[in-house]
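COMPLEX REQUEST
Ligand: uracil
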Amino acid sequence: MDKALRSVLHWWEIMGVDVPEVRPARQRPAAKKQGQQAVKTPDPLPAARAPEIVKSASTLEELHARIRDFDAGEISDHARQAVIYRGNPAARIMIIGEAPGRDEDIQGRPFVGRSGQLLDRILGSIGLSEDTVYITNVVFWRPPNNRNPNPGEITECLPFTQRHIEIINPDIIVLVGAVSFSALTGRTGIMKNRGGWITLPANGRDIPALPIYHPAFLLRQPALKKDTWRDMLSLKARIGTVPDRTG
Ligand code: URA
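STATUS: Structure written out below.
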């Protein structure tokens, strides 16, 4: 698509106009036409490469750059950009959600749409803000048409998420929603596990982690907000007991 046209569409989207998805996918090898010689194409899904790639990221900037450059197949082909984080990289609390949606894809920051606004209010209820948390997702690209990220895509991004945790080295992790909970624990069942403290290993220690409902789910089930309010009180109490390692 013409660059000028794309920038007009992008501007309309920022202004709230519902522009259909017309972005072309990132260049892929052309499909073989009948009678043509088979063309040797590069492996389109470099899943096995993510664990190798993260090894070369020793700083947050390097990790962000590796994520931005990563070819995650369909999701990174269709997304406008990698959505990596917002908040304070020096924060003690790391919030890990699912995957960017439309607003996040446009703005390049996680949790900035309706569910993000609710997340901010939930965190704000115990005095947390972008200055005191680091917010990211287990998947860094918006899945096409807001479908759920599939298990392959989640697994593919996981080495980046694990390295992300090691580099941020938070005192407390909040797992936002079922996908984040399952991706990082290998377990299912957010309904029965929310509000229960678990630990996630990183940097040779066990980091306390709290699974909570996803705000998008709470928007559909507002009666369950009372559970999240309890979880926030539990988080607040825990913050008070975990020694601050940031000095
Ligand atoms: N939902 C998520 O899980 N993450 C976002 O960034 C936005 C919506």
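REMARKS: The domain at 45-239 is CATH 3.40.470.10 (Uracil-DNA Glycosylase, subunit E). Residues 97-101, 104, 110-111, 113, 115-116, 137, 177 surround uracil (CB under 6 Å).
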